[in-house]
Design brief:
Blueprint lengths: L4 E7 L2 E8 L2 H15 L4 E7 L5 E5 L4
Antiparallel strand pairs: 1-2, 1-3, 3-4
């Protein structure tokens, strides 16, 4: 399914950037890269499977 995996970056609670990928492996790789580039206090990065609605991973992790 095209554009199944949705990656979202929020900055201080506001949407800042997003992208979609058809391949989960590619989307997870992008998630890791985004953490390396944008991972700082006040930022939140989430990867969601748009087909199931499941959050696959997020940074920072919830306690």
């Amino acid at each position: 399914m095209p554009d199944r995996y949705h990656l979202t970056l929020t900055a201080d609670g506001r949407p800042a950037m997003h992208g979609w990928w058809a391949d989960e492996t590619v989307a997870r790789s992008k998630h890791g890269r985004w953490i390396g580039v944008y991972g700082r206090p006040g930022f939140h990065i989430t990867l969601v499977d748009e087909t199931t609605g499941e959050t696959l991973t997020e940074w920072p992790e919830k306690a």
